[in-house]
C-alpha cells in the first residue's frame, strides 16, 4: 500500500483522531452486557501467543475470539462506504483490512478457535446471544 495520503480537510483529521482502536462505544456496550450476564473475558488480547492479531473480547478457556468490526473499516455490506477523497488509497486500505480479517479467521479456526464477528450496528442483545452460544459450544467441547 502506498504512503498515507494527507487528510482532505480538518473535519476528516478530527474524525480520524477521535476514532479509537479499542473501547469504542459498540465494544463497551457488548462488554458491559456480557459482564452483566456473568461472563468474564480478556480484552484486546491475542488468542495465539506471538501472533499480533488481537481479539476485542477473548474467552481463553472456551477458545472463542470475538471481533467487533466497524462498518467503515471492515467494509460492511450494509453500511460500508467508499470515500471520494483519496479513493484509491482507501479502497486498498479497506480491502487489506478485510483480507486480514479472513486470514485471521482462517488461522484461528485452524488452531481450534471459534471466531465470532460482530458488526458495530448489530443489536447488542443479538450479539450477546451469538457470543454466549459460541462460549457454551466451546466449553462443552472442552468437557467432552
Characterize the structure shown.
The protein has 144 residues and is of the alpha+beta class. The chain has a single domain, classed as Endonuclease, Chain A. The chain has 4 helices and 4 strands. It has helices spanning 10-18, 25-36, 87-110, 124-143, and strands spanning 42-45, 55-59, 64-69, 114-119. The termini are far apart.
Summarize it.
The protein has 144 residues and is of the alpha+beta class.
Average pLDDT confidence is: 88
Q: Which range does the strand content fall in?
A: 5-15%
Main β-sheet, spatial strand arrangement: 1-2-3-4
The secondary-structure element order is HHEEEHEH
Q: What is the CATH fold-level name?
A: Endonuclease, Chain A
CATH homologous superfamily title? VSR Endonuclease
Report Rg: 17 Å
Distance between the termini: 46 Å
How many domains make up the 3D coordinates? Answer: 1
Question: Briefly, what CATH class?
Answer: Alpha Beta
Number of separate strands: 4
Number of H- or I-type helical stretches: 4
